């Protein structure tokens, strides 16, 4: 694992909302901090309403975490493109985030409740 990345359990209960709907709530989320970037909350897939997510063709590669796949959120107001990402097979040392989803804070609301 890269020395500048830390993963720890996110304390409390976390919720993600988009398009006026709650997409998920979790007490099992993870908090990933990478260098000086703001921390990102990763939600277990089991805690997210996956029926609102549609796989995207978008893929990116992070030199530290690996290949990311993306999802769009299907909301009543329309699709929120590439608002969600996941590392299906993260690099060694980061396996803990496999099976988790992260959300862009400028496209949805992620907050501790």
Automatic annotation (TrEMBL):
InterPro entries: DUF427, DUF427_sf. Pfam families: NTP_transf_9. Residues 15-105 form the DUF427 domain. It comes from the Bacteria. This is DUF427 domain-containing protein. It comes from Flavimaricola marinus. The lineage of its organism: Bacteria, Pseudomonadati, Pseudomonadota, Alphaproteobacteria, Rhodobacterales.
